[in-house]
Every structure is written in C-alpha cells, then in structure tokens.
Design brief:
Blueprint lengths: L1 H6 L7 E5 L2 E7 L3 H17 L8 E8 L6 H8 L6 E4 L21 H23 L30 E4 L3 H9 L20 H11 L2 E8 L1 H11 L6
Parallel strand pairs: 2-6, 3-4, 3-6, 4-5
Antiparallel strand pairs: 1-2
Length: 237
Amino acid sequence: MRHGLRDTEWPGRSQVLRRGHLTWYLDGAHTSSSMQACVRWFRQALHRGERRGSAPEVRVLLFNSTGDRDPAALLKLLQPCQFDYAVFCPNLTEVSSTGNEDQQNFTVTLDQVLLRCLEHQQHWRHLDEEQASPDLWSAPSPEPGGPASLRLAPCPPHTHSSGSLVFSCISHALQWITQGRDPVFQPPSPPRGLLAHPVAGSGASVLREAAAIHVLVTGSLHLVGGVLKLLEPSLSQ
C-alpha cells in the first residue's frame, strides 16, 4: 500500500513539466490549507531548480477561482512567492469553446467570469500596494539600545511588485506567457483577447529574453485541467 501511494501520479497536483526555457508547476488549490501546501511545494521546487548565473529568471502566476471561494485570501497566501507577473483568466480553453464541456460552467456568462477575473486582478493589486506601503505606525517599537534603535530611518518597504493581466481564455493566457518558447504549445495565431494594459508589451519582451520562466498554475482545478489539456493534448485523448 505504501508503494502504491508513493508511485501514484495525479496530474494537476504537485506536477512539474519542464519544457525548454519554461517550467510549469501545476497544483490545483482552492482552500487555504491546500494553497499553503501549494506555496510550500512551489518555493521548495524553485529552490531545488535554481540556476546559478546572472541571466534573469521570471516567475509567473496563472490563477482563477470560482464559486464561493475567497480569492483575496488565496491570493494573499501566494504573495511570498514574489511573482513578476500575475495572470488571470476564466476556466475556458478557448473563448468559443466547443467540445470542451468539462471546462464550461453553463450557469454563468463570459462577461460574468471575466468580471470575476478583473476582481482577482484588483485583489492582487491591492495586496501589492499593501506590501509596498506598510503601516509604519503599527510596527513594534525597537528595544532601547538594540540594533534597531540605531537606525536613522525606517526599514525600506517591500518593493517587489508584479504586473497583472487578464485574458479571456486559457489559450490566450498561455500564448502571452510562452511567447512561442514552449516546444509543444505552438498556437497558429498571435495572442488575442487581452484586456489592454501597459504591462503587456514590456512583459512580452521580458518573457522572450528570460533565461528561464517559472509558471505556477493554481486555484481552480478546472483551470489546471484546461492548461494540461493544451500543454499535454495526449492526456485528453
């Protein structure tokens, strides 16, 4: 029984796909406890795969959450991962999905799911702003005579912030993230469906020039399943 549990493979749970310059980390997590486990796993995996060198590496989050989940709480747990870009999209593989009934939720419209993605983006921006502007008045007072009391100015705030983007479907999100660098995922048309944002052009240049791109796909299990369907088409045959 122990051997069976050890050797079990569950696609979309703590799964890593290495493809050229891209490494995909897939772990569906839609509760606080599962997201905490996801973050621990992702950070450990990043540390093990860390490359030595001066060439830039980019971290990208691909996230969606549906139903009555609390996306703000889940996204807050992801902040320590220090993503360079946060990407949000519905669980649709394509905008005009046909033959993808397992990815569709027929109780909501495309406008509704896109609105939810925009809400996720707003939560993420708010969390970035919170980290960039800590409440200095609520910080504990330094101990008299301690090292902190010798500071002439407060500690600088956390300055790592990430650009965020919303796409109308998984395929468009992957097109932007991969920039044609994934050896398997090679869509025939250029990225479409991007809700205009200044980070899109500059981010594309960064992704094209990065020595490595680390992409965490998490949140909804349907999102993870849709990404796997596009990255590993043989799994859905």
